[in-house]
Amino acid sequence: MQERLEQIKKQLHSEQFKLTPQREATLRVLLENEESHLSAEEIFMLVKQKSPDIGLATVYRTLDLLCDLKIIEKLNFGDGVARYEFRTDDHPHHHHHLICLKCGSLSEIEDMLDDLEERVERDHKFKIVDHRVSFLGYCENCQSEAE
Q: Where are the transmembrane segments (predicted)?
């Protein structure tokens, strides 16, 4: 985690921003909960445990800055709550999401659309820079509860 934090610190500095204690606390929460797709409010509650003096507006500003710098991505899964996850430079759309309509659970699956993406680019002469796919349905637990 420290290595990724240093990497992000360098990126911030290259864009003329500092890694303030508030930004570091927010980044640490994001790194510690990388698989969780946390909302801003969830991030705030976890940051508040580490830095009791931090305000919700500071967390929002930090998240906005990290999104602007393409360090994290703001996701909308159709439930009215923005969630956040880290971006990767090598392949920005490296996975897709499975969203349970009953319990709201989120799971990730690997990107299986590379061939389709190449075909769309070729057939439609359209340069794709990103795509997002969310599959909506019912997780295994919710399916078995309905039976």
A: none
Query: Is residue 9 within 8 Å of 1, Cβ to Cβ?
Result: no
CATH number at residue 38: 1.10.10.10
Query: How many beta carbons lie within 10 A of that of residue 59, not counting itself?
Result: 24
Domain that holds residue 125: 95-146
**DSSP 3-state of 97:** strand
User: Does 96 show up as a binding residue in the annotation?
Assistant: no
Ligand-binding annotation for 67, yes or no, is no
Number of domains in the chain: 2
> pLDDT class for 91, splitting at 50, 70, 90?
very low
Are residues 60 and 81 located together in one domain of the fold? yes
pTM of structure: 0.69
The torsion defined by the Cα of 50, 53, 74 and 134, in degrees rounded to 10, comes to 50
